[in-house]
Batch of 2 targets.
Target 1
Amino acid sequence: MAAKKVLVTGATGRTGSLVLCKLRQQVNEFEAVGFARSKSKAQELFGTNEGFFFGDIQDPLSLEAAITGCQALVILTSAKPKMKAPPKLGERPEFEFELGGMPEEVDYYGQKNQIDAAVEAGVEHIVLVGSMGGVSENHPLNRLGNGNILIWKRKSEQYLIDSGIDYTIIRAGGLLDQPGGVRELIVGKDDTFLTNSANGIPASIPRADVAELVIQALREPKARNKAFDVISKPDDDPSAIVTTDFAALFAQTTPGL
Ligand code: NAP
């Protein structure tokens, strides 16, 4: 069977780069292409610019060139709040977004551009990595830099569902830079892990486990047309059973926002 051609956006990001690496380890199954805005960052991370398209998700033409001929798209772009300055003693830090990098621009219009380009190119499946916390407009992350980041992310998730392309929406808990493949993953919905139903399990997950979920979602039919929250049990939890059966995990997830 021919390899599935997959475009990964945000490919120089912390999770996107892991996804691209993992896909490139499965050359018989996937032909992975990265989309990024910085040639030097791609060079630094991957040692080459080969297999990359460079552009901006706010420029539909640059997306069009990258996505042509792809069967799947992995969206891993995101607006990123930056601390304005170190806070004074006893004060809370203040955050801002770079010019042109507000969540409305990146997480809504930037994602909408990617979804529109995918529809135009006849892409069959989009895996979108987003964030838990979008159910309540009062989530504190929305106040960072007056960005309403989770509101815009949620709006683009709905846009994806309405696009008619098969979707997998992975709403991660707090991302950890820790090893993957050593934890039990738990799926849910509607931000219930942020309230009381996680039995004290921290609402977090390693980026490496999110990257593996993306790969498995590209393979596994049970991940199609599903949206879910995901966290992990701590790696020293004696009750944890390391997740290896991803079909069974996706079977617990449901369609719709
Ligand atoms: P990240 O490292 O911040 O990467 C974001 C990527 O988006 C970067 O590669 C960035 O490019 C790219 N990007 C931003 N604006 C762009 C534009 N206009 N055109 C092209 N590319 C653009 O991401 P992450 O921390 O791995 O997070 C992955 C996802 O998980 C995000 O959606 C995030 O919101 C979500 N999430 C995060 C947390 C957390 O704890 N941080 C928790 C739950 C969910 P550059 O590389 O050039 O900067």
Target 2
Amino acid sequence: MCGIAGYIGPKGADSVLVVALERLKYRGYDSAGLAVLNDGEIHLRRAAGKLKNLAELISAQPLEGHCGIAHTRWATHGAPTEANCHPHVDQGGTVAVVHNGIIENHEHLRRELQAGGVVFQSETDTEVIPQLIGQLYAAGPTKGDALGSLRAAIARLDGSFAFAVLFVDLPNRIFAVRKGSPLLIGMGKTYGADGQIDPVTERVTKHRRREMLLASDVPALLPHATKVCYLDDGQIAELTDQGVNLWTFGGVPVEAQFKVIEMTAEAVTKGSFDSFMAKEIAEQPAVLARLLESRLRGGDLVEPEVGIDLKTVSHVVFLAAGTSWHAAMLGKRFLEQLARIHVEVDISSEYRYRNPVASGNTLVVAISQSGETADTLAGLRLARAKFIPVIGLVNVVTSTIARESNGVLPLLAGPEIGVASTKAYTAQVLALYLFALQVAKAKGLLSSAAEQHAIVSARGLPELVARTLRQAEEAVGEAADIFSSAQATVFLGRGGEHPTALEGALKLKEIAYVHAVGYPAGEFKHGPIALVSPHLPVVCICPHDQMYEKMLSNLQEVRARAGRIISVGLASDQALRDLSDHLFPIESATEELLQPILSILPLQRYAYQVAMRRDCDVDQPRNLAKSVTVE
Ligand code: AGP
């Protein structure tokens, strides 16, 4: 949660930083601000509300200067007001700080600083950081020593955080600190040379300089940076116009390791779509095709190296949150059916606070689109502390979860910017199916006929996804016209479509703010059926699978109580159509285990269409953030 950016270079820092924040706003978007250093002064611009408020403020009151830090906020401590916006500055006006994470002992530090005469300007936990650094820099053994002051301040801070600091008297210099929250350094072009005209600033320069950037995520470094270095936990970086210096918190110098950035700036723009969510839904055929391309060679399954002998695994624990947890539920079905092993699906925030049993042949699979979800990361660390091997199934392969796992299964879905997970979900489900095949093969349980059937079925998926997206659109729009004002919606599914029901409900809740719940349809009669009325749309997910007849009985029960039925099923299914007010047509997967990938598609579009009719911002729904890096 919260996004951090920093810039040192020939361009105007304010305009570079506003674009960087635009790329980070999926991490939080309730207020934003930046600080630019110019002529020995720190200049601030901050605005409550969406980023466009800050952008408007800056175009009305631009800032001179080529070195700055910026922040987009997801409020934890203190309402999203201008006073609580980052950057925060110390009382003496010496340092400015932007911060991501939580300072757990902030109350204690605040009281201590107040007792020493500091007057706080905000309600945030963050403000203790600049106040503390400012004091340490102004007097005592670390007076005038930026690095020393930072290290002394860090020693006083509890919690998990990343922050960036400007010192008023240190031009072209940004310090950055990481403990638990991600932070990346970007390296751009060199510019200027002795006595030559700088092509960008058109000034005569004295020495070659380098454009340097800082961000919570790669997209915010684009298009300026060509290389990236990931800060590790417990490191401090000093960015200057000559490059970067790194140290551990203990003061030991570390060599910065830069890698070429492979992501392009186009991958993080909306293109011709109205929203990232619409673009990401439409990308699903290509995403699944790319994943299959990486995992299939001709008629064979390519088995990625996961650093673990899968044939010895007899117990798998999936750790995940939100949409990733729904994918995990399908992963359990795949592994049980194909590899016949015992599987648990655990919500990360629950697992981390239990004392889970670690048996010899257990494997933990941490599923996370972002690879930064704090609870899933904590679960991973708990498992590793118990010597349980962990595979990270992530979209962001450079994420903390990827780096701390024994093995990584990448989703290859490309950047997912919309807060609602769509393409990453279907990629997770397919990746889990392929993983289950890999485990089954390692255990000698996959006959070559079964492998061929699985491969042929998987290969056909991208085309079926494309067809389903095309054919469902009209029916989805009609139903959204009718039900967008409904107060609540219920989603029912059985077997593999139970996770689809949960995921369909989550999409509608998070982007359209409609109260929605998903149930295993067999549970409906045990209480929730009391909700049925002529005003309640009930979405029944009813493909031609082994639970089909049972689902039809559920539809009958809803119809008998005058409920309104939206069904998800085959276009040719007249019996289903006759029982439904609306039918969202889907294609039929060759392999039933893969059907949920098709069934969720019209429900993603339905949530989107309802959200549009309710004037909701689908990419930045209220109260949410894409990457949940706090507890
Ligand atoms: C998905 O639509 C949600 N916004 C959310 O539930 C998300 O899936 C959850 O926060 C987990 O994120 P992760 O996959 O990045 O770990």
